[in-house]
């Protein structure tokens, strides 16, 4: 299952620079605005409450955020060798995302689905990058069906 991701070939529709800056800002409100569409405040608040309930829950250290940013840049730029191997995936593959994902524009989901033979693409309308939390009630049965 590949969720809210894109091909690592360097050929993709880029997220807006504002979305990338918000994600790496360390500002929780900006990050949440990246993950959930503006009209999904209830989902955003539920996500924040649920993650805060984890024991030992803390914000990611700046070094971890920087490392994730570097890895994402390599993947986006097509310089991570693994990114060019998507077309060799032969296992059944489910690709899923929200149609309003500002970090991974939906065109990338279609491109990834074309790269992987037989991939199934499931898109959630009015959902963002965190669609799997926003639409968990709809997504869990899709996962269960795919795995069975």
Would you write up a description of this structure?
This protein is mainly alpha-helical and 148 residues long. The chain has a single domain (2-147), classed as Rossmann fold (3-Layer(aba) Sandwich). Helix content is 47%, strand content 8%. It is built from seven helices and three strands. The protein has helices at residues 17-23, 28-35, 41-52, 62-77, 106-115, 131-134, 136-147; strands spanning 2-3, 94-98, 120-124. A three-stranded parallel β-sheet has the order 1-2-3, with helices on one face. The longest helix has 16 residues, at 62-77. The protein starts with a strand and ends with a helix.
Low-confidence stretches: none
Radius of gyration: 16 Å
Quickly count the helices: 7
Beta fraction of the residues? 5-15%
The shape is globular
Number of domains: 1
N-to-C SSE series?
EHHHHEHEHH
Q: What is the CATH superfamily label?
A: Alpha/Beta hydrolase fold, catalytic domain
Strand order of the largest sheet: 1-2-3
Query: Could you estimate the helical fraction of the residues in percent?
Result: 40-55%
CATH class category name: Alpha Beta
What can be said about the biggest beta sheet? 3 strands, parallel
Strand tally is 3
Structural class category: mainly alpha
CATH topology description: Rossmann fold
